[in-house]
Design goal:
By secondary structure, this protein is α/β, with parallel strands linked by helices. It folds into 2 domains: 179 residues, Periplasmic binding protein-like II (D-Maltodextrin-Binding Protein, domain 2, 3-Layer(aba) Sandwich); 135 residues, Periplasmic binding protein-like II (D-Maltodextrin-Binding Protein, domain 2), CATH 3.40.190.10. Helix content is 38%, strand content 21%.
Amino acid sequence: MIKNLGRIILAAVATIFSIGGIPHANAQQYLRIGTGGTAGTYYPIGKLIAAIVSQPEKIEATAQASNGSLGNVIAVSNGTLETGFSQADVATWAKNGTGVFQGRPTLPSLRLIANLYPESMHVVVRKDSGIKTIADLKGKRVALDEPGSGTLISARQILSAYDLKETDIQPEYIKPNQAGDKLIAGSLDAFFFFGGTPAKAIVDLATAGIGIALLPIDGQPAERLFANSPFLHADTIPAQTYKGVAAVETVAVGAQWITSEKISADLIYLVTKTLYSDAGQKALAAGHPKGKLITLPNAVKGVGIPFHPGAKRYFLEAGLLK
């Protein structure tokens, strides 16, 4: 009887495995990518990457709009998302308890899949506004992006570098597409946006006919920023990146794809290998201007948190890590 009972238990366990109570090792896996607002750069890049790494009956990857870097690192850490995009500085602060995470609970499970491309700070004004510098924003109506975004964190740093407090402006906390609409309507004077060029919201605004300009971030304020955040670096947005807009000196930071140490190493290895395959690289280059920068040499630059074991395995095989 006991022997028969043992066979019954074994048969039941086998049935559970076969019908999906516990998934097969080769069952289809789902991978969500937290991006940003639909008018930014994270979202189209996320959709592009999701399409590249998805494989029939193996991986179904989807890009999800979100508030941005801060929201993504928190969602990845608590398991709401499997992966997400983040500014390099935000991910590092979250993991190490520095920067905006000073004195707050850290997110020790964060791991890096890859550094993707540089994203540039845009400070957008109407060309006829008379606003020429960040210092001129004092007393003005300025959108800083939504809570949870990396832009909001960086905008506060930039204001401080120019000796401005948030109380010195009339702040609004809205996404760049909404800010663009308000700029057209004349109910907003400026907005900040950290993203890869060209960003859809600013492309649309530049072709709306009102005439826009980008404010420079350079000189001593920029040097103060670099001293406080080693992940920031000098950058130039070239002329005509946006219709009728001159070249401008600004700051940039790495956009990174992050995940949690709890996610399967085999899954992350497979998506990393697929992204950097010849077919993946061709699709990236054809799919978005910033896709041309998502290359193997750039993947291991600006690293502030540990690589996920799956990504590390691939980069070791590719000879990028030792």
